[in-house]
Amino acid sequence: MQFPWVSQLASLLDRAPTVGQLLDLCEENYWQLMAMAPGLRRQQGLLKSSRPGQMDLYLEVLEQTPYTTVVHLTYYFSHHRGQVPDPDAVLRLYHDAAQVEVMNLRQSALPLNAGYQHPSLRNRWKVQLFLSKWLAFCAHQGHRFDRSSELLTEMQG
Predict the structure, then answer these.
(1) What's the pLDDT tens digit per position in 18-31?
(2) Is 122 part of a structural domain of the chain?
């Protein structure tokens, strides 16, 4: 089955972005994530979003400061080695600038990181595009982190 956005994504990955386009995409990703987690600035711990017939999505707040929030966003797949996170992202949200910085991204869907890559404009563009598509997919599935989300750290403690 071919997804219609796959050909669009290929052309976006190949183009040379401008700094302005990258900043626009970082802002779009910020607002997508804030729509999924409207109370993020007040959240702590590990949250789980469950949707019928979909994989659970996990959001862990790693750090809160007055102007930034660092989160870990992932799915966990069952594997013979145990639970495997994929995609697996650590993101820093800049609330004053409405921007998302991808601090770390591991995933196996697209060939974004073949070993070390210099954090060039083109590589940052690819990573932000992947994040944009992933967040849109999660939102389309109805994932949301709010008061009704399961707070896993309370259950474990």
Answers:
(1) 999 999 999 999 99
(2) yes
